[in-house]
Design a protein that fits this description.
By secondary structure, this protein is an alpha+beta fold. It has one domain (3-57). The chain has helices spanning 23-37, 45-54, and strands at 3-6, 17-20, 56-57. It has a 3-stranded antiparallel sheet with strand order 2-1-3, with helices on one face.
Length: 58
Amino acid sequence: MGKVLKCRDVGVDCDFEVRGETEEEILAKAAEHAQGCHAGVEMTPEVQAKIRAAIKDE
């Protein structure tokens, strides 16, 4: 079963969705997306924890 993360589930006004098999894969893709689309967002431990909490099973 895969996993999905939606920017909106983290409180960001963005329609981006990322899918992957593991939380680590989702975190890596989310970090790449944030660098390109959400200037100034840093992947701090707090942000990573918020992302992990928003990841859902598909």
